[in-house]
Write a structure and sequence with these properties.
globular; 8-stranded mixed beta sheet; 11 helices
Length: about 325
């Protein structure tokens, strides 16, 4: 019996535009266990957000097109669901926190109205009651605003999104994402627009509430420091592929893929008295309409071999829980 809450297998997604076909995801494999936080890292445009949208059933179709693969959740393939069936999964099964809460919250409704709707739907789906007990709904709204550390929740629920700071809006989004007690929460760079102090507070809050509701999390970020604080396991993406996957301590202490090693070299850290010199990754991220044959990282790799331009290895387990997609580990 598997402990996976969700399992993505061989998922390939393209965007078909007037300018050509762009490969967003290339045979992605990723599983998340129950009550586990998986960090998904990589440069902008590598496919992190596309994967989250695919799981939520929110890919824009067209131009997005799923070429192959499956997304198994509670024993069924989400890619076979109709939009009506996906609506029942979103919120109570899978929830999502977006990068910019101001564009995710409705500016015409108060915070209380929007959080109340989430709680009503949860109550109806869980048959707690018909969702019309406004006293009970309001009490739960106030309770969740307290849980995300918002002062004076009774007053706060009457305010509109534009009256709040970015950190306060993100706290509301966290409350909305977790109030329905989902099995899986997708967090798409939820702290990237916040200052360092607020970012630390939000991370602490997420960790605390996730443990409380026993949700699994896919935490998407380009910031290694953030991922190091919150994740149990890390997957590294590049040009639509998962290049390496390992427990968080292992990937920081023993990165195997040249791309992961380059990311770690560009990560600020202290060594003794002097600060270590930051490395740079030569070249640039490939155009997704013209991804190089073989390993997509080979034009930028300092360990490149002849077969790298033709062979595209899949993830291979090199030690328990540590997988890497590189020809150096296929012999």
């Amino acid at each position: 019996m598997t402990d996976h809450i969700i399992q993505v297998n061989e998922l390939s997604v393209v965007f078909e535009t007037l300018q050509g076909r762009y490969s967003a995801l290339d045979k992605v494999d990723l599983a998340i266990n129950k009550s586990e936080v998986v960090g998904l890292v990589g440069e902008s445009g590598c496919g992190k957000s596309t994967l989250a949208l695919a799981i939520m059933g929110l890919l824009p179709r067209p131009p997005a097109k799923v070429l192959s693969g499956c997304i198994m959740f509670n024993g069924t393939n989400l890619l076979t669901y109709t939009e009506k069936e996906m609506e029942k999964v979103r919120g109570t099964g899978i929830s999502m926190i977006f990068q910019e809460p101001l564009t995710s919250l409705n500016p015409l409704f108060t915070i209380g109205d929007q959080l109340s709707e989430t709680i009503r739907i949860k109550m109806q789906r869980q048959n707690e009651h018909d969702g019309r007990d406004e006293k009970k709904v309001r009490a739960e709204v106030v309770e969740w605003l307290k849980r995300v550390d918002l002062a004076d929740p009774e007053s706060a629920m009457e305010r509109y999104p534009h009256e709040w700071s970015g950190g306060m809006r993100q706290r509301v989004m966290i409350a909305m994402a977790l109030a329905a007690k989902p099995s899986l929460m997708l967090a798409d760079e939820p702290t990237s627009a916040l200052d360092v102090t607020t970012q630390a507070q939000i991370l602490t809050l997420v960790k605390s509430l996730v443990r409380e509701v026993k949700a699994s999390v896919l935490f998407i970020s380009h910031d290694l420091a953030v991922v190091a604080q919150i994740a149990d396991r890390v997957a590294v993406m590049y040009a639509g592929m998962v290049m390496e996957e390992a427990p968080v301590n292992e990937i920081f202490e023993n990165p195997l893929h040249p791309y992961t090693q380059s990311l770690m070299g560009a990560f600020p850290k202290e060594t003794g008295v002097r600060k270590a010199r930051l490395e740079t990754i030569p070249g640039s991220v490939p155009n997704l309409a013209r991804i190089p044959p073989g390993c997509p990282f080979h034009p930028r790799c300092k360990f490149v071999k002849d077969q790298c331009s033709t062979a595209r290895p899949g993830l291979r387990e090199t030690s328990p829980g540590h997988k890497v997609a590189c020809v150096m580990y296929t012999q």
